[in-house]
Amino acid sequence: MPVVENRTLMLATLALTLLIARPSAAPAMSPAMVEQLSLAAQQYGPPPGGSRPTPPPATGDQTNSASGLYMSPTDDIWVYAHAEDPQKDQFLRAWGANGRSIPLPGDDPQAYSWSLMKWDLSGFPVNAKIIEAELVLTAAPDSGYTAKDAAAAPLEVRSVKGGFNEMNWDYAKAETYAPDGDTGLFGDLSPTSVSSTGFPIVIDLLKGPANFRTYYADAMKKSRVISLAITSRIDPSTLGRAGIYKVYSKDAADPAVRPVLRLVLLKPEKKGK
Question: 225: exposed, middle or buried (C-beta count within 10 Å: 0-12, 13-18, 19+)?
Fold first, then answer.
């Protein structure tokens, strides 16, 4: 998907979720971005009904200052030597080997695979407090693992170096964009029910051990780009070729199954209050 069109789709998602989030308070944006949001909403229309979980309403003093946001990534890449063009591939994948999610020096790099995603948060409030943060994924049909297999090898979300771009992606860059270790593990999830027709995988980014709030705050002071990797130690060498995590990418034909970063933000209080 061309970069301009993908950015427009992301803006459409943001525009519409700002309208439906309850309570809703739009982040500070430039007039130019507001114009782009309006145009994007006109081009893409409302999201499919019931396609995403609804953020719970804020309580107490947060009632008039919390914003629920859903954002599609601007770029996502399946990192593997024989992967398809990341601008066309409808799926992201992750697997590991030898009980590990990430290869160690000397390991066969093709025994492991992960996927990269990034979001452009330009225009968002810099000092907003994160109340909730989730990565919402949808598993592809006919998963080659059971709930018991998943319990032993959850799908993980880790920090990763930014700067990658799916348009000019080359597998030779894989080592540069290898996921961070456990110090960068924001959360994981083992699906408790595995369906042959596909199912949601919603990972709480505030679970830890890594601190997503700190990571977000640092990113907002610098590049205003969030980069994440999905990994797992699930091993196809023991489960069979289909024994991997396979989820839809931003290029999936159905918008309802594309990956989404869900944030509930509390805007900073005005000085003097």
Answer: middle
